[in-house]
Give the backbone structure.
Amino acid sequence: MKYVTERDIYNAEQLDHVLENLPPFCNAFFLGIEQTTSPLTRLGYARDLEIFFNFLINETEKFNSYQISDFDKKDLNQITIDDLELYMSYLSHYKKDDHDHLNGERGKMRKMATLRSFFKYFYRRGDLQENIMTKIDLPKLHEKGIIRLSDEESSRLIAEASKNPRDEMIITLFLLSGIRVSELVGLDYQDIDLKNKTFLVTRKGGKQTILHMGQQLHDKFAIYFSQGEWTPTTPLFTKCGHRLSVRAIENIVKKYASIAAPLKKISPHKLRSTYGTNLYKATNDIYVVADVLGHRDINTTKKHYAAISDDIRIKAADMVKL
């Protein structure tokens, strides 16, 4: 929980910095959504809005004489459908701080979703004559195939990581629990209860959940703990005494996966998908998978893990006979 608190404080500080680059009236929006969003979500919104207002200044005639501080709520009423469609095109390739930025359909969708929340907030307050965002067709998202590791690839991945006890524990924890990378990063020694075979994770939104570990994961933890000195607040995974970051964990997974499964782009989330798939195959219970993975919406679980797999299709092909 200490990690989550420190992370939220850091994100709140970053948000304050970005707000300095936004029109002053935007502060009302962020105050209004504070109770229903995390600091990380609000930081993402702020960065998206910074891109939008810079677009208005640099790419539209009606606002090209504006400074950021000149914008007022009433100016939102001047924004047209043409402006917003031009903005979606602009998002494909734009420059910021002398760097090129590219957005695919998912990047565009997220930034337009930010604008939807932004316009909806001020429309509901009565500051807008209409909510023009409701007239905009959002980018169509094409479904991507779910990438997972086979049993053989999972075994090779663990074998590659076995040269480093810390890295082997990281890979094993992903494959035997399905926790998110942010949940893994935040684990401390005191969060692991070997006696009761449980461990405590902090989910999205700060909710703490006790998860159960199988015997195999329990034994791996026992070996890992025997190889170091621990205090209750010692982070589970460190380098030079400092807690590993999300990016560092992602790089560790990428390094070993490039050898174990070179044709697949494997990330911590793909290891989570591998666990979810294996759990669904073992239980055939989508509700169990949703609960263990911490999905708030069962439809999210169904979308990723309840699809008919190739092995089921093969069995189905031979089930009906004349």
Observations:
- The domain at 151-316 is CATH 1.10.443.10 (hpI Integrase; Chain A).
- The first helix runs from residue 2 to 19.
- The beta strands are 93-96, 99-102, 192-193, 198-202, 208-212, 238-239, 242-243.
- The first strand starts at residue 93 and ends at 96.
